[in-house]
Design goal:
Length: 260
């Protein structure tokens, strides 16, 4: 199985326009390739490359896009190393298409860069035009300290997710993100970071909530009205696969819980 990853987007480009980064975009991918991708708009992008230090820039203006599901990668063949790896992301939850997330077409070619970054190219809907267009995204991987080599995935238990709420939470190392869409298409997202009280300022939600700390974890972003049981993932090896989490009115099940 692949190693869990924390992917930070440095920029997006819609050729021939120049590259920019109008969001704080972070993707957490588990060992079994479950992922949560959260993209939060920054009010006044300053053109500076994204980094771990400004990923929680305050305040986030709004949700650009959030989605979750599973990914599958076809690696570059050894016989032809110039052929890029190809990844398909299957959306099971999507803030933009909550009623039919599986219809989203999301795939790209991955080109390794000399500095260790990855350049992703493909085509998708350009939100500025509403039309499918070619894009480029530059990604970097954040390191996970050995003491935090742990990942957890929770999913809501609604049968087949048909006509019900859809939710997924992924924790990888010192980051955790969750998304939940309800029967009316309303979306709630949370982003947490391990690092104690000296980590970045949070974005207190539109509800005006006070900042949240759970031990050395801090919620750095929250949008929406629902409650997500992200905090249940913060223990080390406390959750077993198949176990039900009942800390909220929603029933969640542990689908992954492992170290690496």
């Amino acid at each position: 199985m692949p190693t869990p990853s924390i992917s930070l987007r440095k920029h997006i480009r819609w050729p021939p326009a120049p590259a920019s980064e109008p969001t704080s975009t972070l993707v957490l991918t588990s060992q079994a390739s479950h992922f949560v991708d959260v993209r939060l708009l920054i009010p006044e992008p300053n053109g500076n490359p994204a980094s771990a230090s400004n990923i929680s820039t305050k305040p986030f203006e709004a949700l650009d896009w959030a989605f979750a599901g599973t990914s599958a990668t076809t690696p570059s063949p050894r016989a032809n190393p110039d052929t890029p790896a190809h990844t398909l992301w299957t959306h099971l939850i999507d803030s933009q298409t909550p009623d039919a997330p599986e219809t989203v077409r999301d795939k790209g070619d991955i080109f390794p860069q000399a500095n260790g970054d990855s350049l992703e190219t493909g085509s998708m809907i350009n939100p500025a035009t509403g039309e499918v267009a070619a894009y480029e995204e530059l990604w970097t991987e954040l390191e996970v300290p050995p003491s935090l080599h742990f990942s957890v995935v929770l999913k809501t238990r609604t049968k087949n997710w048909e006509g019900g709420e859809r939710g997924m939470i992924v924790r990888v190392g010192g980051w955790c993100q969750g998304i939940l869409t309800d029967t009316n298409g309303r979306c709630t997202i949370e982003r947490w970071r391990f690092g104690g009280h000296d980590c970045e300022e949070e974005y207190s939600s539109e509800r005006g909530e006070a900042e949240a700390y759970i031990g050395n974890w801090k919620r750095v972003a929250r949008l929406g009205e629902a409650t997500l049981p992200c905090v249940t993932t913060f223990g080390e090896f406390d959750l077993r696969e198949g176990e039900t989490v009942n800390e909220t009115e929603e029933r969640w099940i542990v689908v992954e819980s492992s170290g690496w």
